[in-house]
Amino acid sequence: MTAPIVLSDLIFHSAERAPEAPALSFRQERLSYAELAEQIQKAAHGLLELGLGRNERVAVYLPKRLETVIALFAIARAGGVFVPVNPLLKPEQVAYILKDCNVRVLITANDRANLLAPVLAECHDLHTVVTLDEDAIPGLPTRSVVWESLLKAPAHGVHRCIDTDMAAILYTSGSTGKPKGVVLSHRNMIVGAQSVASYLGNGPHDRILAVLPLSFDAGFSQLTTAFWSGASAVVMDYLLPRDVIRTAARETVTGLTAVPPLWVQLAQLEWPPEVVDPLPKVGPDLEIDVEKVAALEPDLVLATLTVPGHEAVVERLEAAGLPYVAPEPTCLADVYRDIRDLAERLGVPEQAEPLVQSMRAELGDGRRSPWDVGDPPPEPDPRPAILVQWWPKPVITPGAQSWATDGNGASAISAAHPACIIVRFEMFMDYPPLSFPTTGRIPQDSRPAQPRGHYIPTQALQGKFHCAPWYSVNAP
After folding, report:
1. 20 to 30 A from 74, CA-CA: which of 12, 195, 398, 403?
2. What is the 3-state secondary structure (H, E, C) of 238-300?
3. Which residues pair with 29 in a beta bridge?
4. pLDDT tens string 15-32
5. Are 423 and 471 a contacting pair, CB within 8 Å?
């Protein structure tokens, strides 16, 4: 089979290989690759019947559904250029995009077309509005036809395209000004799909959930990645993050792309057993089954030395010949170093420095360590004296160069020790009351403490130690 040249080839080639394989689903509706290819071909003939010229733009202003996907790929099949419009945009914003890239045909729904009616007269290049509902809309300043009539049009020869021709124009959000159209060729989108499917190892067994807007490059990539690999794409619009979890469970989803805010919300929810149970598990943190890790064929294993006993795990990873990194930071400077090292190993060194600078900005210059900014802390130092921490290994006392002085604390031994040292428990009694960072669980034998100087007035352990949560001292 020849390599795909235009974007719709992704679907038609998969239809030739496995016509009955599931290609696309939305709620209870399902299409095989053969059915999807047939619908795309019919819609392409319908667009040509409307007089669509080569490289002319067609906007699709719809929420995610089967017809949305069919329309986008039919436009490319016919030789046009599709412009997916975010369904959350207001009429004035939609009109700006329609005018900016000289859209000739708009595919939408009746309710959306009625909202757009007052601004469509400004779109002088627009000659046809296609609606998914059964009845055309009277009173529009352009011709109005229904989707079903498009699918009944006679066969037409599609415009000949090559891989460097325009396939799509995706508009930016406009958060820093007017939205800008990004032109993508057929080759851009096909190579992108091939690349993503390759490094994720996608195949026909996968079911990829498309939750991001199709007007967003990462959202549309979920479709092209699925169709390149012969997988099934599941499209959905969600109201609540829990809807994503329910759909993932119902559709036995194996792949999901999301933006960080959505990942944060999903991570805080409880996932049902039917989603979690099939995931590979390699054991509790101190009893990692290295053979199971090796079976996953990882490019890189991120290990840790921040918990006692993990040294044995790292030794087993090394004995098995697995590529791994085991960061052991003791101060924020080490964290920044590890970020750069990880980015280098993962082949994305350019992503390290923006992350480091973002962390620096969030922590604030006033909370950086003296050796990082060149200035000693002001006198008298108002920060609590930190002696003991349970990170990265018990029992460690932060020295002058550690997270204690990076954050809100001051090292109790900074004059004698520049770096962290391991201490014995009996050493505690040689120091005045000290702050003791904890994960938040206060021992039952603790009691309320009275404020003493600049020490944290939280809880005291047997009158000796003040407990402070990790975040109060910025432990990395």
Report:
1. 195
2. CCCHHHHHHHHHHCCCCEECCCHHHHHHHHCCCCCHHHHCCCCCCCCCCCCCHHHHHHCCCCC
3. 26
4. 999 999 999 999 999 999
5. no
* Biggest alpha carbon–alpha carbon distance for the chain: 92
Parallel, antiparallel, or unpaired for β 465-469 and 459-461? antiparallel
Domain boundaries, the chain: 9-236, 238-276, 290-365, 385-473
Q: How far apart are CA 280 and CA 77, in angstroms?
A: 40
Give 389's pLDDT tier (boundaries 50, 70, 90). low
Q: If DSSP codes are grouped into helix, strand and coil, which group holds residue 131?
A: strand
Cβ-contact 59, 170 below 8 angstroms: no
Token pair belonging to 161: 């395209």
Lowest mean pLDDT among 224-238, 244-258, 268-282: 268-282
Of 95-99, 183-187, 355-359, the poorest mean pLDDT is in: 355-359
Do β-strands 255-256 and 143-146 pair in parallel, antiparallel, or remain unpaired?
unpaired
- CATH level 3 topology of 290-365: Rossmann fold (3.40.50)
DSSP line for 199-234:
HHT--TT-EEEE-S-TTSHHHHHHHHHHHHHT-EEE
Q: What is the CATH number of domain 9-236?
A: 3.40.50.12780
Contact 317, 303 (CB under 8 A): yes
Domain 290-365 in the same topology as domain 9-236: yes
Cα torsion at 119, 121, 127, 133 (round to 10°)?
50
Distance linking the first and last C-alpha atoms of the chain = 52
Contact 84, 215 (CB under 8 A): yes
